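Propose amino acids for all 310 sites.
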């Protein structure tokens, strides 16, 4: 294994990965259950790596904005955890689900407490609680991402949000079901509007690699202020490792060896604690909702550099 000795080797490594990805067969299919995402070209690919000081390297479509989707769940979790601390864990668990991200199955026999914050039910709970504390969960998230990425142009794609709302019956069912157990505090239509707006923020690989930096800096934001305690940053990274790629988290840990979070827009963020953050994008998904080329690129990155938590 070639272990990277300095960040100067990033660009050649990224170019090598991009060349390997270019020849990959079977890139998966875009998320077709959200019509606004279905038209994405599965041959697009971008990858960015950010250092702790904000230096960022990239290849391919690394500055092309795409829909964050479930990647947003990491940031809403951090923003709410910073505000309410361990009380959050009375309302959402920290265990892998073993079921699809939009499953209703576990909620009934677990009394309306979602298994973790990254399945849709858990993310709805977190967004609900953040909205109660801020009055605008999606707006708070957008402001945070703009600040951490340094990109004031980040915005919500209203077309994607409308598409998700028009096809959001399963999320509505999750919200109403948890509300029946007293685990949702806001009116479900209000919560769903916040959640769909949150998932519809567009950002590039460069933006998201930079915005994730606080998790590599053990809770410290780009401006040097602290968002999370070291313990809380460790918690978020741990949940990303065990739950961040839907019901494929074990395989992702086996192949990539980093805390990561995927979204059905084709993006994946990953963290090398204390050192770097990454974001990859490829709209073609596997059957579990993870970017085919994104997982492959991160696998190659950790193999070529030796950067892994294992």
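Proposal:
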């Amino acid at each position: 294994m070639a272990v990277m000795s300095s960040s100067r080797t990033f660009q050649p490594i990224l170019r090598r990965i991009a060349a390997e990805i270019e020849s990959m067969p079977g890139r998966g299919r875009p998320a077709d259950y959200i019509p606004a995402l279905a038209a994405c070209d599965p041959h697009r690919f971008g990858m960015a790596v950010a250092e702790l000081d904000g230096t960022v390297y990239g290849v391919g479509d690394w500055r092309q904005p795409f829909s964050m989707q479930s990647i947003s769940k990491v940031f809403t979790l951090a923003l709410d955890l910073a505000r309410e601390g361990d009380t959050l864990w009375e309302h959402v668990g920290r265990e892998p689900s073993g079921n699809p991200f939009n499953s209703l199955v576990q909620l009934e026999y677990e009394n309306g407490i979602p298994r973790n914050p990254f399945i849709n039910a858990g993310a709805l709970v977190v967004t609900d609680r953040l909205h109660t504390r801020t009055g605008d969960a999606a707006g708070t998230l957008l402001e945070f991402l703009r600040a951490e990425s340094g990109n004031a142009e980040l915005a919500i794609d209203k077309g994607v949000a409308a598409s998700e709302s028009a096809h959001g019956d399963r999320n509505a069912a999750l919200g109403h079901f948890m509300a029946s157990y007293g685990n949702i505090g806001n009116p479900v239509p209000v919560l769903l509007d916040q959640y769909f707006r949150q998932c519809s923020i567009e950002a590039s690989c460069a933006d998201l690699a930079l915005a994730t930096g606080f998790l590599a800096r053990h809770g410290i934001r780009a401006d040097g202020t602290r968002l999370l305690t070291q313990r809380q940053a460790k918690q978020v990274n741990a949940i990303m490792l065990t739950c961040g790629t839907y019901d494929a988290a074990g395989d992702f840990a086996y192949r990539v060896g980093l805390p990561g979070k995927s979204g059905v827009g084709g993006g994946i963020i990953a963290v090398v604690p204390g050192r770097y953050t990454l974001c990859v994008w490829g709209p073609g998904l596997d059957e579990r909702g993870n970017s085919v080329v994104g997982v492959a690129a991160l696998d190659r990155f950790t193999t070529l550099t030796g950067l892994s938590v294992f």
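The radius of gyration is 18 Å. The chain has a mean pLDDT of 94.
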